Amino acid sequence: MNQQDNREVLLSVQNLDVVFKQGKKSFKAVSDVSFEIYKGETLSLVGESGSGKTTIGRAIVRINPCSNGAIYFKGEKISGRLSRKKDREVIRKIQMVFQDPAASLNERATIEYIISEGLYNFHLFENDRDRMRKVEQAINDVGLLPEHLTRYPHEFSGGQRQRVGLARSIVMEPELIVADEPISALDVSIRAQVLNLLKKFQKERGLTYLFIAHDLSIVRFISDRIVVIYKGKIMEVAETEELFRYPLHPYTRSLMSAIPIPDPILEKKKKLFVYTPEEYGPDANPQLTDLGNGHMLYGTPDEIEAARKKRFGSTLS
């Protein structure tokens, strides 16, 4: 029995399709994606640019509509039409931290107003003193100072702006944060600080994260489980160390080979593994299959059997 079976499922994505239409043309960005996020964990969605990661994240926060399938939060369906009350509850409980901290903050608003906006919209304060207490607590928690509240976003560095974005999310007291490549636009030294902040909030507040990234080396540090996605389809799902020990899908191995090695000599000698997608015939019937140990793999029955032998040394499931 997998150790996660008795954990509370906070978010469930079931058979999700997202199709974008322009006139008579349509493009399927996400195809039949299913996964669950357990309360208190960090699940990472990893794949190259254009793989559908952000599209899934935006579907969860109801920016992108689902073309098919459903999304459930705490057992209740949140995709499709919702009552105004339910919609507001979902907006408050599921927050998003965006990739570009400059574009996601209102340049004409002070930091105080940016962080307060959600509090105003949801009336989450008793009086102005209570609101300021919450705002100052949030700005302090992300490592900025109360005097920063009177400034504007353009006066801050990228790392500081991302901290403001984090403060804007945590002041709402959410249960799930969708973090869409929150550190890819930041310097390497600042990345570690932001990741440490995310881990600190998770520990102190019991937060759950969907962490979207293209770099496997970063998600290894923060993730409990990893979902590898390619062209809108899930290729592999496993606990973090399981995936790094036994990367079974060739696309996962190609992502692993792209992780930089700190030693310049070894880095020069390294051979990159380039993934060539399988061309499946009409009778191949590839599916996402549980190999055991919480490790899921996309492939045909023959590919799954070969992978199971490679991972466990036998054909027993």
Describe the structure.
The chain is an alpha/beta fold and 317 residues long. It has 2 domains: 3-277, Rossmann fold (3-Layer(aba) Sandwich), CATH 3.40.50.300; 278-317, no CATH class. Helices cover 36% and strands 25% of the residues. The protein has 11 helices and 12 strands. It has helices spanning 53-60, 84-93, 111-122, 128-141, 158-170, 188-205, 216-222, 240-245, 250-257, 264-269, 301-312; strands at 9-22, 25-38, 42-46, 68-73, 76-77, 94-97, 176-180, 208-213, 225-230, 233-239, 287-292, 295-299. The strands form 2 sheets. An 8-stranded mixed β-sheet has the order 6-7-8-3-9-10-12-11, sandwiched between helices. The protein has a 4-stranded antiparallel β-sheet with strand order 2-1-4-5, with helices on one face. Strand 7, helix 6 and strand 8 form a beta-alpha-beta unit. Helix 4 (128-141) packs across helix 5 (158-170). It starts with 8 loop residues before the first strand and ends in a 5-residue tail after the last helix. The mean pLDDT is 91.
